[in-house]
């Protein structure tokens, strides 16, 4: 397992989403010696894609991902609108040379109880986006989300399920593993081994707080919670993963309320817990 | 699949935990034509085990389970205190002729990040309880809890994981399937088939609300949420399950605030959604 330094970290802009623009995030990473960034699309678009690409390049940052494509179930069936938006996301990922486009695939359509149907929509959507992404050299990373988001955010809920989809769709698609979503999975180590280096496209960290006060916005800084992050990272790196370790923390009551420089300092300070 | 009637339902006392004693629950079931009951141990002990057994028998109710044993990780390691309490739970289940003793196995010990260790404690604990339960003819039902409870309530989080433990421990142990905990699992149908009739010891229903406002106490009445309960029941009954369908709803803001007779009427009114 690597000895991590700040240069191995990537700032997911959601971590300071209430505090900073993308340009401020880029400056902040440089200031704190953080080696990479992973923008959310709203921040990227606010900045302007071409300008963002230049700022990131000039700062010498890696781009561990673009968050996020997906939401294939948003309109109840796979529509051209949804597919076009994902195509734009691929283009944006290409423009900033992101290691992958992270996919939050979407939950149940409004009013639906058909999770198998939702999963079929998602697989079809990923297939279409992947076809395009291959032509521009962007990797697609399915992010399995915690099962508590199956209804409202993503109906792909385990690493094994994501890899089943990858198996079906072929090259150019893999998984974005976020410890928050997968730490509980008794099959995790086996599925990471199954994924292998080529399909481990992103590794996200934060922590599971106990108790958790909000299902979406109560994530902790690494070390604050109950996830044995080094244990998971060792399994991921045993497969040869050597990419940036991306820090993505949604924290309405705590980290989003602090000065962003304090958050970045806490990130680098948390290296021993990763 | 069966055509359910009120007589096929069982009232888990948690559903009206704020409103009724066990004696009132028993009377209520009789009044509403509900065929069974599943007491929580606190209600059972308040009533007195022998008195409860007589009241249940006199009312002609089936007993779909006793909630709950388990919590093997409560003291950080498997202690005699924990084992003794589970032995008492087995005796109580025997006294009321419960179809099974439902096991909520416990989460991470305080301060621990070792989920594999917690799972090892749980397996050892179940093994010990099972040894005793076999001598008095009580079935042990592991309830896999939703992964969002892995830290604080139960580190057995999928049906497959529960069945792996059952495979290891042998006869007399199976699973209590609650649709709330397992509905999202892409492997659910396969695992229900793997379980088979002899290991499908209980079937619990309620509904997953979208949005869910609280991780513990915001469950819905069947039909209010997004779970395709009939689809899951059909898979369970295809294995030969013909037991009571137990209704267990934790609902601080809604069902716990209503008159209990209204809750029971809603349960029987929800039969078409089960």
From TrEMBL, chains A, B:
Domain Xylose isomerase-like TIM barrel: 29-257
Keyword Iron: no
Keyword Kinase: no
GO molecular function, one term: isomerase activity
Cited InterPro entries: IolE/XylAMocC-like, Xyl_isomerase-like_sf, Xyl_isomerase-like_TIM-brl
Gene3D superfamilies tied to this protein: Divalent-metal-dependent TIM barrel enzymes (3.20.20.150)
The protein, known as: Sugar phosphate isomerase/epimerase
UniProtKB keywords: Isomerase
PANTHER family with a match to the protein in the record: HYDROXYPYRUVATE ISOMERASE, XYLOSE ISOMERASE
């Amino acid at each position: 397992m690597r000895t991590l330094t700040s240069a191995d970290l990537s700032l997911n802009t959601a971590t300071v989403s209430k505090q900073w623009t993308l340009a401020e995030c880029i400056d902040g990473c440089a200031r704190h010696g953080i080696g990479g960034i992973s923008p959310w699309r709203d921040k990227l678009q606010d900045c302007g894609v071409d300008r963002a690409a230049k700022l990131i390049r000039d700062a010498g940052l890696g781009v561990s991902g673009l968050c996020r494509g997906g939401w294939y179930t948003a309109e109840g069936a796979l529509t051209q609108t949804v597919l076009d938006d994902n195509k734009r996301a691929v283009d944006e990922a290409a423009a900033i040379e992101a290691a992958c486009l992270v996919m939050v695939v979407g939950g149940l359509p409004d009013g639906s109880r058909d999770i198998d149907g939702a999963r079929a929509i998602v697989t079809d959507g990923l297939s279409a986006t992947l076809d395009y992404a291959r032509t521009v050299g962007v990797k697609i990373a399915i992010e399995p989300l915690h099962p508590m988001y199956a209804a409202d955010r993503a109906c792909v809920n385990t690493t094994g399920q994501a890899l089943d989809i990858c198996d079906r769709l072929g090259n150019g698609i893999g998984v974005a593993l976020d410890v928050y979503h997968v730490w509980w999975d008794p099959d995790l180590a086996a599925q990471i081994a199954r994924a292998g280096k080529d399909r481990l496209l992103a590794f996200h960290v934060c922590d599971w707080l106990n108790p958790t006060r909000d299902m979406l916005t109560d994530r902790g800084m690494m070390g604050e919670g109950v996830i044995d992050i080094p244990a998971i990272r060792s399994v991921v790196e045993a497969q040869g993963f050597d990419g940036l370790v991306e820090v993505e923390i949604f924290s309405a009551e705590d980290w989003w309320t602090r000065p962003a420089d304090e958050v970045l300092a806490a990130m680098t300070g948390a290296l021993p817990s990763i």
